[in-house]
Each structure stands twice: as structure tokens, then as C-alpha cells.
């Protein structure tokens, strides 16, 4: 099933708890960015049919309003479009209590990777609202080996093992 690509969809709500506050007693930006990243990552996995997606790019972050302990906020995602290996979203977060928009992020790019950690062509051009692209896992998610130059650097910097 295909449907409107660009419509903002509000699927998730969060309840602002004490551990989500900054020193000012308002919503901590890092918590909000984590929720946004997680929400978009799940959407990217479901659209690309690939568990191995990574966040590549986020455009300007501007917190224009906030939230307080006990507030309910809702996260909306809209699809900008599909690339060859990537998918791009936009995001809006609203405080359901004050009705203010807390943040709008115009561009968030995710890239699907193969089992070597390289960008992989996904082949999709349209949004699905069905569950037809949920990745089929046949074993543990394979982890890419550390690139050779980083492995060499790590080995060179490894502390000497002291023996008694
Ligand atoms: C994701 C990663 C493998 C991409 O590597 P790369 O060398 O940039 O790969 P490519 O140049 O082939 O680009 C891959 C896709 O990303 C897009 N892209 C790359 N840089 C971009 C940027 N600055 N802004 C937007 N899109 C970008 C490309 O347009 C391409 O999309 P397309 O195939 O749909 O056209 C690599 O950058 C990486 O591993 N980054 C770390 C990601 C990560 O760990 N994120 C978690 C937070 S630390």
C-alpha cells in the first residue's frame, strides 16, 4: 500500500519525567534529541527494510519552546523522500499541554548499511504504511569489523599489559 509521502505523522507521545530535565528544570535538549533520533530510526528501519540504519545528518537544531515535568509531548515525522541508500525525514515536536511547537527539524538523513557497514542500495521509492518491510532476522545482527586504519591505531595505542 502506498500513501501520502509528505504528511506529518504523530505516532509517539512522551511524558516528561524528572530524569528528562535540565538545570533550568525544563526539558533537557539531549533527551528530546534522543527521542527524535529513536523515532526516526524506527521509521527508517520500517521503510528501508533494514535493521542497520545509522543517522547521517540533522539540519539546524533550534529549541523554540520547552516543556515542564509532567507535560505530554508528541513527536511527528514527515517523509522528505528516498535516496539510493538513504531516507530523509523532517520532524516536529509539540507540547500537548501548552500546544507550543518545541522544535522543527527540516532534514534528518538515515543511511542503510550492509553487513560490512557500507551504504547499501535499498531500492524503495515510496512510503509504506504496511508491515511489509519489517526486516527478517536470521541470526544476530552482524557487526562491521573496525576499519583497518582504526584497528592499527588502536593496537599501537594499547597500554602495555603488566605481568607480575
Ligand atoms: C553513514 C556512512 C556509512 C556514509 O558514508 P559516506 O561515505 O558518506 O557514504 P556515501 O557518500 O555513499 O553517502 C551515503 C548516503 O548518505 C548521503 N549523505 C552523505 N553525506 C551526507 C550529508 N552530509 N548530508 C546529507 N546526506 C548525506 C548521500 O547523499 C548518500 O545518500 P544516497 O545514496 O541516498 O544518495 C558514514 O558517513 C558513517 O558511518 N557515518 C557515521 C554514522 C553513525 O555512526 N551515526 C550514528 C551517530 S554517531
Describe it.
With 164 residues, this protein is α+β, with helices and mostly antiparallel strands. The protein has a single domain, classed as Thiol Ester Dehydrase, Chain A (Roll), CATH 3.10.129.10. 18% of the residues lie in helices and 28% in strands. The protein contains 2 helices and 5 strands, in the order βαββββα. Strands 1-3-4-5-2 form a 5-stranded antiparallel sheet, covered by helices on one side. A hairpin with a 3-residue loop joins strand 3 and strand 4. The longest helix is centred in the first third of the chain and has 20 residues, at 29-48. The N and C termini lie far apart (67 Å). Bound molecules: coenzyme A (COA). Coenzyme A binds at residues 54-57, 83-86, 109, 111, 119.
Question: What is the topology?
Answer:
Elements: E1 9-15, H1 29-48, E2 53-58, E3 72-82, E4 86-95, E5 101-112, H2 148-157
Antiparallel strand pairs: 1-3, 2-5, 3-4, 4-5
This protein binds coenzyme A.
Key phrases:
Thiol Ester Dehydrase, Chain A; binds coenzyme A; alpha+beta; 2 helices; globular; 164 residues; single chain
Query: Helical segment tally?
Result: 2
- What order do the SSEs take from the amino end to the carboxyl end, as H and E? EHEEEEH
CATH level 4 superfamily = Hotdog Thioesterase
- Assess the beta-strand content as a share of residues: 25-35%
Specify the CATH architecture: Roll
Integer-rounded radius of gyration: 19 Å
Distance between the termini: 67 Å
Q: Could you name the CATH class?
A: Alpha Beta
Main sheet strand line-up: 1-3-4-5-2
CATH topology annotation: Thiol Ester Dehydrase, Chain A
Q: List how many beta strands DSSP finds.
A: 5
- Biggest sheet layout: 5 strands, antiparallel
Structural class: alpha+beta
Shape descriptor reads globular
* Average of pLDDT: 92
Number of domains: 1
Helix content: 10-25%
Low-pLDDT ranges: none
Query: What small molecules are bound in this structure?
Result: coenzyme A
